[in-house]
Design brief:
single chain; 13 strands; binds N-succinyl methionine; 4-stranded antiparallel sheet; 369 residues; binds magnesium ion
């Protein structure tokens, strides 16, 4: 059992090596929110994946500040000695805020597993030593630029490319990238930028042999996606819609998706993510691990998660140098389109605390009252 003594919340400024443009905005410098917990059994790190602004999902940093300090962390202090497996239940009375909850559970899992000298991969029963990964490519000013950027990633060894699309940047960019890369595994992601009125237009993507199309419509539009499934031949995948195991069950019961993108933070944590994986595996529904431009902390955990057998499609878990010129942990490298799964205790990475201190622009400590 662990007794948390201190939660330290930090926001870090991390410049991306290349701006990342989606249908909801462009990021050039990412504000990354991390949590360090100190307990009677040592310390651990978690990453929140929360964005600065509520444009991907409703959670955002200023709201997280409040929910961490006034609602979530006080409940953990008040609960008495706990295990990481108890966190979700303790925080359950607080509605939503799954990414914030995930960061806290993650930090405590890290401590617990380090104390037990077990890796997160061993704990969840992941089997692969390295996982096949892909790269998510942002929207570019011109299609020529997109073709060049994709060529660079293919030259780096990525076998799966995801293109961000939006109205006005969809069929032609996909056609050109497909022509230049006939054999690459190709998929697209709209981050909710379309509506059911666009289905006939989007059906023009069918000839390009896409692995999947991801979250075309609003996060709550299960019926719209069910209609999409009926009217296009490309497999449909949901991302923003899948905020829990219940959302997963709803999506699959309504035939609103063939494939599920699992983002651990979005579903409330890595333990919930394993449950979504298990449920989908039981139905033979393919899943893959999404990405939130994480630092090495989140990337390490995502690699272990993606080593579970049901993760049959490549994840958005790229090598460190695709995101950062310098990360806060040791870097991850791509070898033959794969990245090795960390084997050390906890999440298996060492946080460079001096560098973390250097790039911190906000730091708060929360202690028991
Ligand atoms: O981590 O490589 C990554 C980014 C993957 O495209 C990616 N994530 O909707 O799937 C998605 C987006 C959400 C994050 S945009 C900041
Ligand atoms: Mg997505």
């Amino acid at each position: 059992m662990l007794t948390p003594q201190l939660f330290e919340l930090r926001k870090l400024k991390m410049p991306l090596v290349r701006p990342f443009r989606t249908s909801f905005g462009t990021e050039t410098v990412r504000d990354v929110m991390v949590v360090r917990v100190v307990t009677d059994h040592g310390e651990g790190w978690g990453e929140s994946a929360i964005e600065s602004d509520p444009l991907y999902l409703s959670e955002f940093h200023d709201a997280a500040d409040h929910v961490f300090s006034d609602h979530l962390i006080p409940r953990l202090f008040a609960s008495g000695p706990l295990r990481a497996e108890d966190v979700a239940g303790i925080l359950e009375p607080v509605k939503g805020h799954r990414m914030a909850k995930s960061a806290l559970e993650m930090a405590l899992l890290d401590v617990q597993l380090r104390a037990e000298r077990r890796s997160f991969q061993q704990y969840i029963g992941g089997t692969r030593t390295a996982v096949l990964v892909g790269v998510s490519v942002g929207i570019t000013d011109t299609i020529d630029e997109l073709v060049d950027v994709v060529a660079g990633y293919v030259a780096d060894g990525y076998q799966r490319i995801k293109l961000k699309i939006e109205p006005g940047f969809d069929i032609e960019p996909v056609r050109r990238v497909r022509e230049a890369n006939p054999d690459v595994m190709l998929q697209v992601d709209a981050n909710t930028a379309y509506s059911v009125a666009d289905i006939d237009h989007l059906a023009q993507l069918d000839p390009f042999d896409l692995l999947l199309i991801e979250q075309l419509f609003g996060e709550d539009d299960f019926l719209g996606h069910a209609e999409l499934v009926k009217r296009i031949s490309t497999p449909v995948c949901l991302d923003e819609a899948i905020r829990s195991l219940d959302h997963t069950k709803t999506a699959l019961a309504l035939n609103a998706a063939h494939i599920i993108n699992i983002k651990p933070a979005r579903v409330g944590g890595y333990l919930a993510a394993v449950k979504v994986h298990d449920f989908c595996a039981g139905l033979g529904v393919p899943v893959w691990c999404g990405g939130m431009l994480e630092s090495g902390i989140g990337r390490a955990a995502n690699l272990a998660l993606a080593s579970l057998s049901g993760f049959t499609l490549p994840g958005d878990i790229s090598a460190t140098k695709r995101y950062w010129s310098r990360d806060i942990t040791e870097p991850f490298e791509l070898v033959d389109g794969r990245i090795g799964v960390p084997t050390g205790p906890g999440f298996g990475v060492t946080v460079d605390t001096a560098f973390v201190e250097e790039i911190t622009f906000e730091r708060r400590e929360l202690r028991p009252a």
